[in-house]
Amino acid sequence: MLSPRPIALALLTGLLLGISAMTAQADKPKPEIPQPKPVVNLIFDTDLGNDIDDAMALATIHALENRGECKLLAVTVTKDNEDAAPAVDAINTFYGRGDIPIGVVKGGVTPEDSPYAKHLARCKDGDKFRFPHDLINGSDAPDATEVLRKTLASQPDGSVVILQVGFSTNLARLLDSQPDAIAPLSGKDLVKKKVAILSVMAGKFDKTKKEHNFGEYNIVKDLPAAKKVFAEWPTPIVASGWEIGEACRVQAASIVQDYNYVEHHPVKEGYLIYCKMPHNRPLYDLTSVLYAVRPDRGYFTLSKPGKIVIEDDGFSQFTEEAGGPHRFLTVDPVQQALVSESLSVLSSEPPKKQQ
């Protein structure tokens, strides 16, 4: 028969080992549970009408807002054409947000007509607009600088992401704006106080292929404004270059099939007018939307910090610099597929049902 002492010691030892194991387990770092991200307050600056990707980018923003990920505060337009802003209003109204402020450039570039913007702004079935909207002519919209200043002044400090997917005209004029009745700050100081980051579709940063060495469209169309914004913008800038949009494309089958939840869809009809089908359009502008709202999802890889300089020939040159204010996006083949599919799904997502 065992004596009580060894039994007691054995029980005590087992108890201590159990406590030790529990303590060790408790000391292990617990898996991090993803927490809800704050809603991204977004200003969309676009040259909608020059390419259909602007319309798809705007549709993507609405889908992300439906999901509670962003809030579209205002849209400003850098295409100086009377149909561009009404086309924006038609898309916003289609997605149930026809009250979003729209500002337009005055004396800007690319005044040429856009067949797809004209269709969205003017097409009628009988005596009613096919795509309802209140803004009939872009000349009736307020100046973009005024809309930018009002929108920024109304927001908490450091809370706004500006998404520029067209020319730099509006943002360069914002930097030059002076204190006024809207805000007692210069444009540059207002940006510094209110803006967290500028996500911009502009430039080219992959110089490995000869055919990539040319001035990118959004840069060269208003070169002085682009030079100014990249030189003077007082908050971080993340650029999605031409090569990112070229790598990430929507499939023509998505356009043909995924928008058929309504008889007339502004994005589908605009795409079919803009592109001779079948055509897998590059997702230039949409990549900047995706980064602006979902920067930590692994869709892209960021370059090291540095400085982007726009040269006199429109080339965008990046120099690595510790603590530099600028970075640009890259994608590998896996990310390319993920971005393409994600943006195809988001840009074709139905509007949120109105209560």
What can you see in these coordinates?
Helices cover 40% and strands 17% of the residues. It has 355 residues and is of the alpha/beta class. It has one domain (40-347): Alpha-Beta Complex (Inosine-uridine Nucleoside N-ribohydrolase, Chain A), CATH 3.90.245.10. The strands form 3 sheets. It has an 8-stranded mixed beta sheet, with helices on both faces. A two-stranded antiparallel ribbon has the order 4-5. Strands 10-11 form a two-stranded antiparallel sheet. Helix 3 (84-94) links the parallel strand 2 and strand 3. Helix 2 (53-66) runs parallel beside helix 13 (284-293) and helix 3 (84-94) crosses helix 4 (115-122). The mean pLDDT is 92.
For this entry, give a set of tags.
Inosine-uridine Nucleoside N-ribohydrolase, Chain A, 17% strand, 355 residues, alpha/beta, 40% helix, eight-stranded mixed beta sheet
